[in-house]
Task: structure prediction
Amino acid sequence: MPELPEVETVVRSLKSIAGRKILNAEFRKPRVLQGDADQSAEFLRGRKIRVVERYGKFIVFRLAPSGFLIVHLGMTGKLLMDSPLTKHSHVIFTLARGVLQYEDSRQFGRVEVCEELPKRVTKLGPDALDIDLATFVDLVRKRKTRMKALLLNQEFVRGLGNIYADETLFRAGIHPLAVGSRLKRARIERLYEAIREVLNEAIASKGSSISDYVDSDGNRGSFQDHHRVYQRTGKPCVVCGKPIKRTLVAQRGTHFCATCQKR
DNA sequence: GACGATGTTGGCAC
DNA sequence: GGTGCCAACATCGT
Result:
């Protein structure tokens, strides 16, 4: 589920829990917890949620008087407020008002409780919506890797995933196998604008619900109806009418228009 | 029932 | 610093 627009939507849907106290935390599945269950529960008990923020694809709860609760949704993770428990409800937070649960059928996501943000979070690159144009152009021009792989690399820029990498490259007219250091400046500037456009439109649509993504209130997004290439293999390109192609780049399904996107 | 694909990251070999 | 491959896991479509 979770790329920048979906995570942003979840965070916005959680805004109202700021100020609430955590009464208890139950970790049912060790796999999705980074750390020890008893220690993590003990740490959380009695702390207050100060604010909920997005950091790339991570959801960060800043706690009072100190500490963090970090959630990464992986492929199928969900944070749900006051929702019935399922066999995939792996973490249950009892709050002063309401119950927040972490549900994740594939268990690729992670929950972590810590005093300071860990390296795996702080080492990430600038946020895809925060980076400025000049910095972005410089970063791309230094890279010899293929653009699709570069956009997926969270240490380059954080927040993009498979859907939005494909959609932004299409809008910028860049082939997924194009190499950053060989792109013209104007082309990189167009990509920068495409990233802002696509992400902001997707946030306005409350994300893409490809299979079962929902926000913390159980609401689906609608940006999947506006995808131009992602999972449109064989369908006509909205610009030129030629069929959209699918290939594998960096082990990820990659959708593009061979006519509109040049190397 | 088998097989392949699915939005993620991390580790390993080279 | 790259790339390629595999791993984790459950579900869904063919």
Summary: Chain A has a mean pLDDT of 95.
